[in-house]
Specification:
By secondary structure, the chain is of the alpha+beta class. It has five helices and 16 strands.
């Protein structure tokens, strides 16, 4: 799963890389992105801001709705499930990323290990989006089996798309897009750090995902 990533390039440079215009981006971009917070995606020919995670509304013991939880990862082998099927068929997006993080280490002492692509300041992760009554437009990352560079930490990883595959993910038929949901086959950079996984300024809930 992925519950933390960062984007280090200015919005204008990101839009230029993907050949799109800059839409409504608000305060998104230029740093670390956590679930239930705004992030940038490429959709409908624009670089635009959406909330990371489809809201899942649960109910308390008295039947009252609780605060929505962000479902920020969608498994590639479950894209036919009701929560994802219509977005996968009709609303796919690209998520620009400079690096994504996984938690490594013992419970209570986990640190951040960052993954990026050599020679690429920004790359694209496969995403889905939809309009929601709770958070407006929201997006989620598509996850697949981990490649050899990630498997020692986690058994799943985001679907990384080569540039030649961007158009097929955005506008291709679902069957063709499904073929792109595979472990990344090329080289990756793995950077282990001593950074605590959960920072005091960020709630633990925002890093748990689903």
């Amino acid at each position: 799963m992925c519950n933390l990533y960062r984007l280090t390039k200015p919005n204008a440079e990101v839009a230029q890389l993907f050949g799109v215009t800059v839409g409504q981006v608000g305060n998104a971009g230029g740093g670390e992105v956590y679930p239930a917070q705004p992030g940038l995606v490429i959709a409908a020919g624009e670089l635009t801001s959406m909330t990371w995670g489809f809201p899942l509304v649960l109910k308390g013991k008295n039947g009252q709705p609780l605060k929505p939880r962000p479902v920020n990862n969608a498994r590639a082998d479950k894209l036919d499930n009701f929560m994802w099927r219509y977005s996968f068929a009709e609303r796919r997006c690209l998520i620009p990323v400079s690096a994504f993080a996984e938690a490594e280490g013992e419970q209570g002492a986990k640190t951040r290990t960052w993954f990026s692509l050599p020679g690429q300041d920004v790359f694209a992760i496969a995403g889905l989006w939809r309009d929601t009554p709770e958070w407006g437009r929201a997006y989620t990352m598509v996850m697949t089996e981990a490649c050899q560079h990630v498997a020692h930490i986690h058994d799943r990883m985001p679907v990384i798309l080569r540039q030649d595959d961007w158009a097929d993910w955005l506008d291709g038929a679902p069957d063709r897009a499904r073929l792109l949901c595979r472990p990344y086959p090329d080289l990756m950079v793995c950077e282990a750090t001593d950074q605590a996984w959960v920072k005091r300024s960020v709630s633990a809930d925002s890093l748990t995902g689903r």
